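DATA SHEET
Item: assembly model
Revision: 1
Owner: S.N.
Input lines:
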Amino acid sequence: MSKKRLFDDPCGIARALNAVGERWALLVVRELVFGPKRYSDLHRGLPQMSQNVLAQRLRELEADGLVRRRRLGPPAPAAVYELTERGQELEPVLRALAHWGSRAPLPEDGAAELSVDALLFALRATFDPALAGELSLRCQLDVAGDRFRITVAGGRLELDRGEHAEPEAWLTVPEAATLRDLVFAGAALHDAVERADTEVAGDTARLAALLRCFPAAVRYPAPQDPGPPDPVSPGPVSPGPESPNAEHPDPAVSARSRRG
Amino acid sequence: MSKKRLFDDPCGIARALNAVGERWALLVVRELVFGPKRYSDLHRGLPQMSQNVLAQRLRELEADGLVRRRRLGPPAPAAVYELTERGQELEPVLRALAHWGSRAPLPEDGAAELSVDALLFALRATFDPALAGELSLRCQLDVAGDRFRITVAGGRLELDRGEHAEPEAWLTVPEAATLRDLVFAGAALHDAVERADTEVAGDTARLAALLRCFPAAVRYPAPQDPGPPDPVSPGPVSPGPESPNAEHPDPAVSARSRRG
DNA sequence: CGGCATCCTTCAAGATACTG
DNA sequence: CAGTATCTTGAAGGATGCCG
């Protein structure tokens, strides 16, 4: 149990990175922000993370008081991991990263699935009150069997696991990619319904309005600085906002590969 | 120039970490938030970072469009690194991390110096409007020769490199640790002045009030969960001592080692 | 001297297999 | 299901060399 490699720097940023700066650590926290999960669920949400590293990160996060291991049962002797209070306080960090990262380029090989929790957290992080305006809606969401409740009111969005007592709209999608395309790739709701992989009910007009409250992420242009003697020009990184669509290179992946 | 190790995950958090998740990357950004710096200044602010890693991080940050290398001169052929617009947009991320990390435990061996920019950014991140109340002040700050201007008004704090046209108060400290003790360790202003390592002028009453607007960082308590029958993990990491203050082990290091 | 590039060592991360 | 054990790869750390 060798001591973890730490920044010897009293700066708060360095101290934070001492706790969550190791590779995968913040993604593990991301998988837990919506509630406790078992080891295998964590592994499902982060399939590219090797298991020994996952186990090690969990031990470190537990030692630092960000994650708590709880044993359920005895009927079903399953262990779950959940964020402590201290761990939940990382949400502003995740939110800031997700907001910034939503304008970062996608990795080239779009082979990876988007985990359900990752997608839902992206909604939390990229909700734009200006786009919401006066919209008010209680929506019940089902993504591949995971149920979430969304509440929009007063320019604010709440999003948690659970059930609304009296939803005004329902949206059921078979997998995360379907919702991803609806929200971030501008896929039309009625198209998804016609392909029969999506179900809607209730106030579909306001539901469609809700889906438009999340500004689509765009690739920002490469640091092409073709050498003008422009010492401090504001221009070069302007993310060419005149391309409101053209997001995911393959919006056709939506319908397929229903999991067993 | 082997390709960087990337998360193949379309989640915004993962995409952000692909840009700034490597070790030291965010600390390099921290050193640049207050303005351009030369390579050697960066190295001074991050003495524990080996130079090859610094050069590599700078190349990666430049390739990702977060940092721009600019050549000054020709009279003085010095190169400086500065944040692009995109890089400056990381400030909310740094702020969230610094705020969270200000309540994380200090590394055991407090041997490290706090870089000037790190300390000043900590002020930005931990300023508490509630503690400021109706305080209003323009203060000129000199930390080891680096000059900053602070403006507090309407429960907001601005802090940048530069000079106030008409400051209402002045504070001059010989090194970062002195200001650190004044702000975060509760050192008294008049004591510092009497030790002759600190100079104040102008409205010292409001200056003292300003210094009290930054809640001191404390070690957060161990994951004490005394309630449920938790058979596993007896919580061996409890840092134990309930010393509510006693922050910096050696508040006597303030006066000494003026750099040539 | 500032600004890196190179070489070598060490240790974390990645992949796979295996066990209670 | 929930991890641990083992092996390989590759990034970080440290020293030194080089070049304008």
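QC remark: The first helix of chain A runs from residue 12 to 20.
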